[in-house]
Amino acid sequence: MSFKKTGTLLTVRFKEPLVIDYTQPVETILEQVVEAIEQSKTYMLKGKHHLMQMLDK
């Protein structure tokens, strides 16, 4: 494992295990996983680095 950026604090947050219904369509399962790892459109542009960029403008 390698990192491109140095001097930053890496934080890890463990969440509850996902309960996945494998009888559901792939799109539904994918949507559930993407939401769980906070990569959906709901979470876009909400990171601290995005807020700092907006303040700099």
Query: By helix and strand content, what is the structural category?
Result: mainly alpha
Q: Indicate the proportion of strand residues.
A: under 5%
Low-confidence stretches: none
Radius of gyration: 16 Å
- Note the main sheet: none
Task: Sum up the structure in keywords.
single chain, 57 residues, mainly alpha, 0% strand, elongated
Description:
The structure is a single chain. This protein has 57 residues and is an all-alpha fold. It has a domain at 26-56. The protein has 2 helices and no strands. It starts with 25 loop residues before the first helix and ends with a helix.
Give a brief rundown of this model.
The chain is mainly α and 57 residues long. It is built from 2 helices and no strands. The chain is elongated, with a radius of gyration of 16 Å.
Please render the helix and strand layout as text.
Blueprint: H1 26-36, H2 48-56
